[in-house]
Specification:
mainly beta, seven-stranded mixed beta sheet, four-stranded antiparallel beta sheet
Length: about 130
């Protein structure tokens, strides 16, 4: 089991930026695809962004394109989600997830991920 620890959430005003981090302490996660998902109250968990194990391929939800950037540093066992121009509708609990194996398929589907963090709250006020 891979333990994932998110950090970086908080309360910000619309238009602000936040950077979320997802660390896998003591683990080498360079073989995992990493994804970010979010869940707002009363809504299903939705895909935000994903990145291939090598960092050279990324995928974004339409709501994240142009505002969010996913990245990773395999030497630090950490993935990131840089969020700019935040909107109130971005308010949610954000989760990172790791997908076993080198195949970069099904990255938008939360059911395809094997390990999850505990989540970090992001609240954007208007």
């Amino acid at each position: 089991q891979v333990q994932l620890v998110e950090s970086g959430g908080g309360l910000v005003q619309a238009g602000a930026s936040l950077r979320l981090s997802c660390a896998a302490p003591g683990r080498t996660f360079s073989s995992y695809a990493m994804g970010w998902f979010r869940q707002a109250p009363g809504k299903e968990r939705e895909f935000v962004a994903a990145i291939r194990w090598s960092g050279d391929v990324t995928t974004y939800a339409d709501s994240a394109k142009g505002r969010f950037t996913i990245s990773r540093d395999n030497a630090k066992n950490t993935a990131y989600l840089q969020m700019n121009s935040l909107k109130p509708e971005d308010t949610a609990v954000y989760y990172c997830a790791a997908k076993d194996g080198y195949y970069y398929t099904g990255v938008r589907d939360p059911m395809r991920y094997d390990h999850w963090g505990q989540g970090t709250q992001v609240t954007v006020s208007s």
